[in-house]
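Weekly sync notes, structure subgroup
Attendees: PM, AL, DS (notes)

Item 1: joint prediction request from the bench team. They want all two components modeled as one assembly rather than separately. Inputs as received:
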Amino acid sequence: MRRTKPLALVAGVAALATLAACGGGSGDPTSPSDSGSFQETDAGSDKDANATAPAADVEGATSGGTITVYLPGDYGPDDLDPTNGWSVTGNSIQQALTSRSLTQYSVDSDGNATLVPDLATDLGQHNDDFTEWTFTLRDGITWENGDPITAKEVAFGIARSMDSKAFPSGAGTEYSKTYFANPDYEGPYTDKKTSWEDWGGVDYDNDAKTVTIHMSKSFPDMDYWGAFMAMGPAPLGNRSNPTTYGQNILSNGPYKVESFTPQDELVLVKNDQWDPSTDTARHQYADKWIFKFNADPDQTDEIMLSDNTQSQTSLSTDLQASNYQTALNDLGDRLVQQSTQCTSFLYPDYASTDINFRKALAYAYPYEDVWTAGGQVPGVTRTMANSIMPPGMAGKPDYYVDGEAFSYDPEKAKELLADSDVDSVSMIYYEPDPLAVKAQNVITKGFEAAGLTVKATPVQESPYSTWTNTSDKLNKSLNVRGVAWCSDWPSALTFIPPLFRSGAVYNTGGFSEASIDAEMKKIPTMDLDKQADAWGALDEKIETEYFPAIPTAYYNQLFTFGSKIGNPSGDEALGAPNYKNLFVMN
Amino acid sequence: MSAPVAEETTELDPQKSRPKGNAAQISGKSPLRIAFGRLMRDKVAVVCMVVVVLFVLLAIFEGLLQKAFGVTAETQFPTQFLNLNGVPKAEFGPPYGTFVWSHPFGIAPTTAVDNLAYWLEGARNSLEIATLSTIVATVLGIVVGLLAGFMGGIVDRVLSFFTDFFLTLPFLLVALTIAPIVNERFRDGDHYEAAQVVLLVMVLSFFGWMGLARLIRGEVLSLREREFVHAARVMGMPTRRILVKELLPNIVAPIVVSTSLMLPAFVAAESGLAYLGVGIRTRPSWGQMLDDATGFFKEYPLYLYEPLLAIVVLVLALNLLGDAVRDALDPKTRR
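Output from the run, pasted for the record:
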């Protein structure tokens, strides 16, 4: 999942920051540097099909008050249509507050997320090969206007996710289109000839309150995909027309939209039709939420550190590195470090480089210095990566490609380069960002110290527009590219195939091995409890045998909370603040 | 009572009253020398001149100075020098530590590059770009102004149209638009760094010549109807010669004035563009230093003051000097 803007998965701010700081930690990841240590979590790999509604009260929670959320440097979603949302920012806000779906994550006070039922009564019943999933809806679920949510509306919402023309940046383009039956169906808005009810991917029974989804291939992660707001209901007919619905959604969560100005502000107020006894994880503590998108980073930090009346009930989703130490001293528990399930990679061109060259790069890359120059806090917002899968993902293996963690060692890189035919690096960097330029200078210095010739070409647009454009002349001349990827749910299914499958868009290094491709196809058909370990083994196999991509960093995010915000914590499932459980202390 | 009569006559005929022997000395002073004399008597002007000369010397000898102080603007591996928040550790100077000789200006947050070395290179780049832009803009302005004013007719109308056209273009908008396009065009070449400098000089000078051109056109319009120009025409002098030999020497004063005021404007504009991220990115500049420093102002204010003071002092000195030059050259100024 992208962190922010739509269109390309990771091509948002985080991706640029990746370039800015194609980071990784230096030294031994088991000994975190200084006071900041890496928070490892198990990112919602737990499931609880029997979670009961209403959700247990957060300790000491009180009702009332307004919570203001500053999102520095984050433009937020352009529209609120649940089907179109595929960014950490938009999904984390809407899934927690306005838009319900089949399943959801319940976050406890430690930030551990558990997959629990939402509109459905359980996590779905599936057949043996995961090609048919049935969800039974709860009683008493309603829209903000008081109308009950019907199975037909949920089925319609699911059918909408097939429409990749109407919702080009929706997550349905990746999952619904890949796994649901009759993938050629264009969706209810593009394919006007076929009624969506004749699509064949979804059946419903309004009386029995069931929705059955048919798959074209085995899809064991349907319960996780069900936690996306795209797998929720949509009003029938014109009310949910894609051109207007995004600015005027009908909500069914504890809050409804009072006003929404894209890239500026979203105001949510209590939805009195939401019944807590139908919801296993959400709460309705605050009276009002105000989200301020694209806030000025410097100003936001000043506000949050000042602890004035307004900032006491505010929170911010980012903190500048320059204020890290001050915040650490002043805020204490109210500075929350949240793992975001993202890994960044250097991705050398698979066809034109060899494994010695790629390992040499891993030793010639000055991890911690690249972070620092890129404006990150070493050991806090970036930590050393050792595997493809980020920490917290089910089945994440613990291995070191070379027996021990990679660290900056130009001499070792020189030795490896002696056995390689390649002795030059050609890469690009994002010039409009001064931090990206500084990080590139450090990378270049590190590579040159290992005896490599470096040609770093500045680009003025997101580097992804070069890396993913296979006909671009500049792209063809590169032998080292990069990618930063975040998971959509804590399964490697959303992580390894998009990066290492032959021909995948974000397989920027062009890695292609028939045996690996076959295994990626095979794992989703295996027994559910064996899949996680199988992905872990595949992760290790790819890296130790081929070493196609150099993991340079795991990402962490810093949140700051005002002194009157209760239960300051993050949501590990989405790498966002724990919106579901926040309240204003009286 | 004959003395007063004699005095009256001397007033009527000054030649007679002049003491013998001093005639050669007085007639040998050109207007520019008189102006220079006035300038040297202006204390503010002299101080400003010293400041400007100092900056020019710093810029010219920045390499030697870096060696003398043992500092370098090369990229560093920053982590070892910095605290977690990106601010230098106490042993490497301010803000947490005291003055250290190895880094007289301290080191930069985030990158740990030596501030003195960076500042000196910034001074060189700033003056280099401002001087080049001033030269280009002045030449453009003189040529266009002279031609438009002297030729008149269709030439005047076309050139004046272009002058007005450039005046209507919003400078910042054009600079912000052109920079990425040109950068993209030259990114593959080996001369990317030079291309960026040339681009910046062009952007600055193409938006700096119009004032001078209009000024000169106006001067020339009044000069070309004077007798000595008519005489030159009648004698069959070629246009080029009239322009260079007859007109140009008569408009030296406004050229010097406007050039001396153009220089500080370009120094400030260069820093401003670098601050906005469209100036030179491949070389150090004060504007980039300012841009980096704003985020660290609370922790490390010195880092902001270094480039800021440099820009303020240099621009102020150049401006005051320009004003002094104008006063000295203007015969109507009251002294």
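Discussion: Chain A touches chain B at residues 26, 34-36, 297-298, 320-326, 366, 368-369, 371-373, 375, 377-380, 431-432, 434-435, 437-438, 441-442, 444-446, 457-460, 474 (CB under 8 Å).
Action: AL to compare against the crosslinking data before next sync.
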